[in-house]
Write the structure tokens for this entry.
Amino acid sequence: EPEVTQTPSHQVTQMGQEVILRCVPISNHLYFYWYRQILGQKVEFLVSFYNNEISEKSEIFDDQFSVERPDGSNFTLKIRSTKLEDSAMYFCASSGGTGIYNEQFFGPGTRLTVL
Amino acid sequence: DQQVKQNSPSLSVQEGRISILNCDYTNSMFDYFLWYKKYPAEGPTFLISISSIKDKNEDGRFTVFLNKSAKHLSLHIVPSQPGDSAVYFCAADQGAQKLVFGQGTRLTINP
């Protein structure tokens, strides 16, 4: 069964460093997303991406964040200068259809620890 | 931001019985709802969804009920199995492809 994959599973970085989290969405999907979950809190939407551009973003997704689909398979989230409060699980998701509502399928997550 | 609320942080049910997980929402613009299941160290796994034009959707042991006037939905699992023990998240969408999640309910199925 096709699935969303994410690398690395755990990333440790120093405050102020740049990190890139990588995702391979399900191959025929058209919409891509990033969510995060700070320990003990809700899963929160960060950004959605369609047709090579951002379609929605939350207030969390400020200028320190960017997304890219560098080739036909990868989808990346970059945090330019990490802060302690960026420590969280980051989930990539993708959805397939062209309808208004489509189930989103999530990857296993990358645990980001900022020291 | 409490647009989607799951008021029970945990629920314990005996194997074979029915599990009922509840979710309330405040934003009347939400018109598509999903349930996800999450095991530790894994991402959320899609279970079942319902659009606002329906009041019930069933898939095997899982049924989701939607009461739009009460802004309430529930997930019924019957019969409950030990493998159902996980955290269950309710999520809502208003057509923006942006899911809003509840806090989750930890379901424990006791043998």
In short: The interface with chain A takes residues 31-32, 34, 36, 41-46, 49, 51, 89, 91, 93, 95-104 of chain B (CB under 8 Å). Chain B has no helices and eleven strands.
